[in-house]
Amino acid sequence: MLPASLLPLPSATFHILMAVASEDRHGYAIIQDVEQRTNGALRISAGTLYRSIQRMLEQGLLVETTERPAPELDDERRRYYRITEFGAAVAKAEASRLYKLVRMARASGFAPERA
């Protein structure tokens, strides 16, 4: 499957991929990261998160990992997710698509030169 075949990504999917890009995270940590990254503008509900994660696992964007960052401090019921190489390629393709879209919007006068 080619990364472009999954574009455009749903907003929640793109944000989840960004949340797990630098480290494995469990569901609640993903929700917190998205809220912090967007300054509260986007809040992903648990239902949306877990439906998205299930679809992303099926698409090969994420894998569930059994590794724990600090096992002695962790709740064993938590599931941790890691971005795959394919997931990173899809995220990069989506970022490129959005970048090109903003460039076109700027050229049409619909977006400022600098935000």
Can you walk through the features of this model?
The chain is mostly helical and 115 residues long. The protein is 50% helix and 9% strand. It has a three-stranded antiparallel beta sheet with strand order 1-3-2. It is globular and about 55 Å long. It starts with 10 loop residues before the first helix and ends in an 8-residue tail after the last helix. The mean pLDDT is 93.
Summarize this structure briefly.
The chain has 115 residues and is mainly α. The chain contains four helices and three strands, in the order αβααββα. It is globular.
Task: Note the beta-strand portion.
Answer: 5-15%
> Which regions contain 5 or more consecutive residues with pLDDT less than 50?
none
User: Could you give the order of the helices and strands?
Assistant: HEHHEEH
Major β-sheet annotation? 3 strands, antiparallel
Average the pLDDT over all residues and give the rounded result.
Answer: 93
DSSP summary, beta strand count: 3
Rounded Rg:
16 Å
- Strand order in the sheet with the most strands: 1-3-2
Q: Structural class from helices and strands?
A: mainly alpha
First and last CA, distance: 35 Å
